[in-house]
Amino acid sequence: MNKKGCRTHDSPSFVYPRQENMQQPNTMNYNVDKNGYYGRFGGAYIPEILHANVENLKREYLRIIDDPAFQKEFRDLLADYVGRPSPLTFAPRMSKRYGTKIYLKREDLNHTGAHKINNTIGQILLARRMGKTRIIAETGAGQHGVATATVCALTGMRCIVYMGATDVERQHLNVQKMQMLGAEVRPVRSGNMTLKDATNEAIRDWCCHPADTHYIIGSTVGPHPYPDMVARFQSVISEEIKKQLQAKEGRDWPDYLIACVGGGSNAAGTFYHYLNDTRVKLIAAEAAGLGIDTGHSAATIHLGREGIIHGARTLVMQTPDGQITEPYSISAGLDYPGIGPVHANLAETRRAEIRAVTDDEALKAAFELTALEGIIPALESAHALAVFGQKKFKPEDVVVLTVSGRGDKDMETYVKHFNRADHE
Ligand SMILES: Cc1ncc(COP(=O)(O)O)c(C=O)c1O
């Protein structure tokens, strides 16, 4: 147990940090309500200057999302450009090692190498319909930046990507890709120069250019309608899992779903069609960095308290007087001090089990998947894979884990640790 009563990753079942005056959560509702809340998390806490933009976005998104012409364009691009459906791959050697039946949902095989493209395709079509001509985005690992630069090239839109200077350095292959795709990458030097700081700058930019600019947020964070909109665009993941499991297992639901959470978009997409199906147990893996009690961690759900970050009420890593704590993870896509409100609610209602995974556990899991199945995962996805080292599953369980991205962007980190492991 740590000081706050949270269990550490050595005894990892999630205990939500209890707060005084906490309202009783609505345990029956895991979907967003009409005001953009998941239980008591979510909403839209925005500067006055963005009010019209956010209201317009909400109106247009809700009008378009069920429009058959929009859906056709979105679905056609997912099929012919992204390469969907992504396979659901049975992992025989991992299954043998962990004594359970493991399937991998292969978002790593998408065009641009991760799940992020599902959302950027949806949002660029929306931006075009709203008459926007300038696109901004924030990025951590660079995957969302590459996915945004890609859809901007596809549609001929101007693209500016904010990226923390630390991330520019550790993910420089993705920076080069964004530049080749025609995007302007603006390094951000405030804070610890990672995802939170990039998001701050993107919001500042949006405040200065509200008329012509659409901000493509890359995760289930930000003011309503972003968390719901991003989850809807990513929900193609669970829609496909249902069909693929039906074909492979004769039933359309697994016993467990596992995904990593940074802001929460691949997990939200993986869980979406199963949120209210309690036969399916949900597991989210967040980044514990060097360990959740070390002061070098990004385990927001374990360590966070209720607060407001980037326009949403959610769990936030913060000091007792409300200053945001700088997060740390080896993985550039997971070191965010907030969490999507959908996941804050899933954790609080105990609908999802939240596991904190350290850098070392993630690295070990990445090397293991590579050796056993010939798949090099992104460091973010490796956090989800490490759950197999923490938790025992039954032989008859069907476990689906989303491999959110491929490991190309992380090769330098892998090589560094692989060589070190070799010489120890
Ligand atoms: C491959 C990959 N997986 C996961 C994430 C975490 O984001 P999210 O929690 O929104 O899925 C990222 C973020 O950059 C990523 O690149």
Automatic annotation (TrEMBL):
<comment type="similarity">
    <text>Belongs to the TrpB family.</text>
</comment>
<dbReference type="InterPro" id="IPR006653">
    <property type="entry name" value="Trp_synth_b_CS"/>
</dbReference>
<keyword id="KW-0663">Pyridoxal phosphate</keyword>
<dbReference type="GO" id="GO:0004834">
    <property type="term" value="F:tryptophan synthase activity"/>
</dbReference>
<feature type="domain" description="Tryptophan synthase beta chain-like PALP">
    <location>
        <begin position="83"/>
        <end position="405"/>
    </location>
</feature>
<dbReference type="InterPro" id="IPR006654">
    <property type="entry name" value="Trp_synth_beta"/>
</dbReference>
<dbReference type="GO" id="GO:0005737">
    <property type="term" value="C:cytoplasm"/>
</dbReference>
<feature type="modified residue" description="N6-(pyridoxal phosphate)lysine">
    <location>
        <position position="116"/>
    </location>
</feature>
<comment type="function">
    <text>The beta subunit is responsible for the synthesis of L-tryptophan from indole and L-serine.</text>
</comment>
<keyword id="KW-0822">Tryptophan biosynthesis</keyword>
<keyword id="KW-0456">Lyase</keyword>
<keyword id="KW-0057">Aromatic amino acid biosynthesis</keyword>
<dbReference type="InterPro" id="IPR001926">
    <property type="entry name" value="TrpB-like_PALP"/>
</dbReference>
<dbReference type="Pfam" id="PF00291">
    <property type="entry name" value="PALP"/>
</dbReference>
<dbReference type="InterPro" id="IPR023026">
    <property type="entry name" value="Trp_synth_beta/beta-like"/>
</dbReference>
<dbReference type="InterPro" id="IPR036052">
    <property type="entry name" value="TrpB-like_PALP_sf"/>
</dbReference>
<comment type="pathway">
    <text>Amino-acid biosynthesis; L-tryptophan biosynthesis; L-tryptophan from chorismate: step 5/5.</text>
</comment>
<protein>
    <recommendedName>
        <fullName>Tryptophan synthase beta chain</fullName>
        <ecNumber>4.2.1.20</ecNumber>
    </recommendedName>
</protein>
<comment type="subunit">
    <text>Tetramer of two alpha and two beta chains.</text>
</comment>
<keyword id="KW-0028">Amino-acid biosynthesis</keyword>
